[in-house]
Amino acid sequence: xxxxxxxxxxxxxxxxxxxxxxxxxxxxxxxxxxxxxxxxxxxxxxxxxxxxxxxxxxxxxxxxxxxxxxxxxxxxxxxxxxxxxxxxxx
Length: 90
Description:
By secondary structure, the protein is mainly α. The chain is built from 4 helices and 2 strands.
């Protein structure tokens, strides 16, 4: 009985951590790749590759996109915001 309860508690802990992780990876621009947006493309991501700037989470399709973005974060973010606001008004 004790082993079963421990397993249930461990499972609940893992589920709780997974839920917290999912909640933590909600990014700006509806989880689209920020570098993709900066290049004028809509690329949906799961936000597993991300960075935080000024308290906001920005998602990337892969590490290469993140590295390209980080070469000029201010410029790329401005491009992404401009493209996103034109393509996805509201």
